[in-house]
Design brief:
The protein is built from 11 helices and no strands. With about 190 residues, the protein is mainly α.
């Protein structure tokens, strides 16, 4: 029974992911997701209380399917705050490549859709928490440049590493993930570290 429940949940999450990316989230109703997943609306609501729960669960499902835990390992294993910061920049640059379809969909919806906004905020707050944790370590190691607090450094780097900024940079003819990583690391190192 549990296996069947997990299979149904995975079908729903896969359908939500596919439809949301394909349509940039517009016009994707719970009934559309249920139909694509091959389940009844009632079954969908047995797994997810509302659309917000489904969207948040879908972003986590994408993380799981794309092995976010394994890809975060270099960041988690880094010993110094400076090394952690570099690995976080590398991780996030590659993560944006993976999540860009879902991110575009959530961003397109967030102004008019509270559930999409909640899903987006949950993901961005997770990034902010990692940046803050990294700057906490950098401060403990006395490697935070003069004039910065953990909060001010966190807020500025979080803003600089935004998906919207990355997407804008991606329009440049010479954009590459490697160049983004090099530039963002240079900015972080020169701006925030002693």
């Amino acid at each position: 029974m549990s296996s069947e429940k997990n299979d149904t949940r995975e079908k729903i999450l896969t359908a939500c992911w596919q439809l949301t990316e394909a349509n940039l989230g517009k016009g994707v109703r719970m009934s559309d997701i249920a139909k694509t997943a091959g389940v009844s609306r009632q079954a969908l609501y047995l797994h997810f209380e509302n659309r917000a729960d489904l969207l948040v669960a879908t972003t986590r499902f994408i993380d799981e399917k794309q092995n976010i835990t394994g890809r975060l390992e270099p960041y988690r294993a880094a010993e110094t705050g400076r090394d952690k910061l570099r690995e976080l920049v590398v991780f996030w640059a590659n993560q944006m490549e993976i999540i860009q379809g879902m991110a575009r969909a959530l961003l397109a919806l967030r102004a008019t859709d509270a559930e999409a906004n909640a899903a987006w905020q949950e993901r961005m707050e997770a990034l902010r928490a990692e940046i803050r944790q990294t700057f906490d370590q950098i401060e403990r190691e006395a490697d935070l440049a003069p004039g910065w607090t953990v909060d001010s450094a966190t807020n500025l780097l979080w803003s600089a590493m935004s998906f919207q900024g990355w997407e804008q940079l991606k329009q440049a003819p010479d954009f590459s993930t490697e160049a983004y990583i090099a530039d963002m690391w240079w900015l972080a190192k020169r701006g925030f570290l002693t």
